[in-house]
Amino acid sequence: ISVIVFYSFQIALSAADEVIKTRVGQSVTLKCGPNPPKGDLSWLHGSVRIFNVNSKFGFPLKGTAVHSRSKVKSGKDLEITGVKREDAGKFTCMADGKSVEYTLLVVSVSATSTDDFRAGGTAILQCDVNGLGKSPEVEWKRPNESKVLKQAKVNLSSVAPSDAGTWVCTFSHKKVTYSEDLVIEVKAPKSSPTQSSKVNPKSCLKCSGSGSVKLSWWMWVAVGVGCLVVILLVVFVIVLCKKIRRRKKKLQRMKNGRQSLRPKQFCQCNRPTAAGKPQQGRKKGKPSALPLQPLLKE
């Protein structure tokens, strides 16, 4: 009986209920007063105790429900990560004879399509609000339009390019309006086989002789590197040929120098000398000159 009286006393001293909106998969922090408590602290989800921080032992005693995705920070605040729909509802912090209450609203917006949101296909938009005893009235606002669809589920029988953009899901609770956005991207319809067989002259690179071929930057880099390699190979071949030619000339000069140092050798023929010609008759001697007669003087 004393526990019930103490619990009733804490509820009577509880602060005003605060509403916090979050989205599935996000994180949220619920604060329990500005200062750490002097005594024990408890966090409740609905009527289930999920944390009990004992000041004597200095560590939290976990309960059930969302405790696997939550932790107590700074000895008092409750942090929930990876929020799920079942985490919505009432949260109560009890410490130092006071309590702080929160209403956690978990909103889930989704869009499904059978053909990957292509123009002409079908799509379904859904907006769910968890955490209130009674489901609130939900409205969808189309992108870039003032038209409002008063329904939580919207069926798009034929997706149009105008459906692309930000859809806004809105609802009200205690005269306060809350909203959640959903972005939709509409893709172009799939081309038919007849259309795909046609050649687009703008996208064709070699359709005509006058058309120019556009190369990407990496192709230009490859062409430049290839030209540089060819130039280097040509230079290497030229230098190598000149080096080989100079070496041949050097070897030829060395060979000619060795030959000039050797003594000259002449070839001697070992054959008999030619016989003299036989005398053919006896040559007649020249007649001797007549002696000069002295001149007679008269």
Automatic annotation (TrEMBL):
Superkingdom of origin organism: Eukaryota
CDD domains: Ig (cd00096)
Residue intervals of the Ig-like domain: 25-103, 120-185
Keywords: Membrane, Transmembrane, Transmembrane helix
Ranges that cross the membrane: 217-241
Database matches in Pfam families: Ig_3, Tcell_CD4_C
Region (Disordered), start-end ranges: 251-298
PANTHER family documented for this protein: HEMICENTIN-1 ISOFORM X1, T-CELL SURFACE GLYCOPROTEIN CD4
Name recorded for this polypeptide: T-cell surface glycoprotein CD4-like
